[in-house]
């Protein structure tokens, strides 16, 4: 039985289709299809039902998938034990935030590539939360407070934020001091999100209103610098602007509670060694006592 055929079947089963599996494997869809046909012919059973929307496992495919995944994991582990001590190989696909990724995470991934010269690292930068399984990603780096999901998350460091406005905005509209006063101001938003603030020991959520929205943190920084409104932003994006006086902290009696930097991955019994290595490298950089700056 061809090992590539076995791996391809597991990827298609987990991704739910030929296209995402092909992206993950770094091969064409036709190659994936040929491998599946060859595997089914060798076994003499149909493993997948193919539709226009993707591929679903047959009853036999469900049974075979678990055995195939276990066999492939053991073979992959055996391969890695033959490498020099501490070495890794294979492809690692990572989804990263566009606002922070190029400045804060790209250097770490470059360091990982230098540390493991047999590895291939493919990255995708977007402030949208991508579907890791459909997109064929091994993991993602995400910031903030994570919503409930079936993904497995590991916190690798803290993330701090500040509510800020430009001196021109404050001169024209004043600076809010309470959550109630904030409601009468223009807020710069990613969507219809709520802002978490600390009221003493209690965390409260306020939902400010505003006419300027952007799905990218850097764009919100530009809007704040232009005096369009008040923004709730990570310190890593605004630290230099606060130091220069271009932005001023407001609502300081109601600070933003610390959030986190997380590595998230699709659910599986054992994380891939490449994901573990990236996680450990991020902890080295950000740890529990440091943050994006």
DSSP summary, beta strand count: 14
Task: Quote the average pLDDT.
Answer: 87
CATH homologous group name of the largest domain:
Periplasmic binding protein-like II
The largest sheet, given as strand count, sense and whether it forms a barrel, is:
5 strands, mixed
CATH architecture of the largest domain: 3-Layer(aba) Sandwich
Low-confidence runs: none
Strand order of the largest sheet: 4-3-5-14-6
CATH topology of the largest domain: D-Maltodextrin-Binding Protein, domain 2
Strand content: 25-35%
Rg to the nearest angstrom? 23 Å
Helix content: 40-55%
| Contiguous helical run count | 11
SSE pattern = HHHEEHEHEHEEEHHEEEEHEHEEH
User: What's the shape?
Assistant: elongated
Instruction: Look at the structure and give the CATH class of the largest domain.
Output: Alpha Beta
Class by SSE composition: alpha/beta
Q: How many domain units?
A: 3
**First-residue to last-residue Cα separation:** 50 Å
What can be said about this structure in brief?
This protein is of the alpha/beta class. The chain contains eleven helices and 14 strands.
Topology, element by element:
Blueprint: H1 3-15, H2 18-25, H3 29-43, E1 48-51, E2 54-57, H4 59-81, E3 89-96, H5 101-115, E4 118-125, H6 132-135, E5 139-144, E6 152-159, E7 161-165, H7 167-173, H8 179-182, E8 186-189, E9 195-199, E10 202-206, E11 209-213, H9 217-225, E12 230-234, H10 235-244, E13 248-249, E14 259-265, H11 273-286
Parallel strand pairs: 3-4, 3-5, 8-11, 8-12
Antiparallel strand pairs: 1-2, 5-14, 6-14, 7-12, 7-13, 9-10
